[in-house]
Specification:
By secondary structure, the chain is an alpha/beta fold. The protein contains six helices and 13 strands.
Length: about 290
């Protein structure tokens, strides 16, 4: 018979104190690292806080100059106050985006840009709205050179621009819709870049009446007329050609020593022009066809 070998049990307790010491030392190191990291993080934050306070409070970065360009109607003081810079002292405390949004909130400012030049200068560049006409829609609004309404006319305010009557809100092309033909005709007549050869005509316009069927009728200031104005019916287009025709007719009629101007003239059809001379009653007999 074979003898069974006696199994020798391993001593599991041997070396256990050493493992405990190693684990304890490892945990201590881990805790120390965490404490050191938190301390370093706290010190870093304190440095940032003190650095921020120093940078934003030092006189070396104080605002010494605010350059404002583009003012025509508005004054630099109004622009500075609108941008919220009246109390600003340190150049780094100015939020450029907020200052620009504040400027654009003013109805007379169409575009704005705010920049800073370290260490002590702020620059503000604005473009003011160009008032093209007063829209009489029951309430009176100012319209810019792009045909957009930018403010309501205040009580007592008398803008030195023509009044446009006869339009309704939908003629303006709101809600991404294109303006109606009669509105496009108003802009074509009034836009500065398109009126270079009829400046004297546009500058004398007191009112433009827009009719969706008949087009534009303008009322021109004329102190020689009893009613204080002359009436010119223009229609929808070809304003330069019609104005040239108006000049030709006016020069022709002035050859008559008794000519005192005209009360009204119909230029809708340049091949059939009807003139109502001044000092006459608008009857069929008084109207002269050219």
């Amino acid at each position: 018979m074979f003898r069974r070998k006696k199994r020798i049990r391993q001593n599991t307790y041997k070396g256990r104190p050493k493992s405990r010491r190693r684990a304890l030392w490892s945990g201590t190191l881990r805790s120390t690292r965490i404490v050191l990291a938190l301390t370093a993080f706290g010190l870093f934050n304190l440095m940032l806080i003190f650095g921020h306070d120093w940078i934003t409070q030092t006189d070396r970065l104080g605002i010494r100059t605010i350059t404002i360009t583009g003012c025509e109607r508005l004054t630099p003081a109004i622009v500075k106050h609108q941008a919220g810079l009246a109390e600003a002292r340190n150049i780094l405390t100015v939020n450029l985006t907020t200052a620009r949004k504040r400027l654009l909130a003013h109805p007379w400012i169409a575009e704005a840009q705010v920049t800073r030049d370290i260490p002590d200068r702020l620059r503000i560049l604005i473009r003011e709205q160009t008032s093209l006409a007063v829209l009489d829609l029951g309430r009176r609004f100012l319209m810019n050179d792009e045909g957009a309404v930018f403010k309501e006319v205040a009580p007592g305010e008398t803008p030195d621009v023509p009044v446009v009557s006869g339009l309704i809100y939908t003629d303006l092309g709101v809600d991404a819709e294109a303006p109606t033909p009669v509105m496009r005709s108003v802009l074509q007549l009034l836009k500065p870049r398109q009126r270079s050869n009829r400046l004297d005509l546009v500058d004398r316009i007191r009112e433009i009446h827009a009719d969706p069927a008949l087009g534009l009728t303008i009322f021109m200031a004329d102190d020689r007329q009893p009613q204080g104005y002359r009436t010119v019916m223009l229609g929808f287009d070809d304003f330069d050609e019609k104005y040239a025709t108006l000049q030709t007719i006016d020069a022709y009629l002035k050859k008559n020593p008794r000519y005192e101007g005209f009360q009204s003239i119909d230029l809708n059809n340049r091949h059939r022009i009807v003139v109502n001379p001044a000092g006459t009653i608008a009857t069929e007999d008084a109207r002269k066809e050219v």
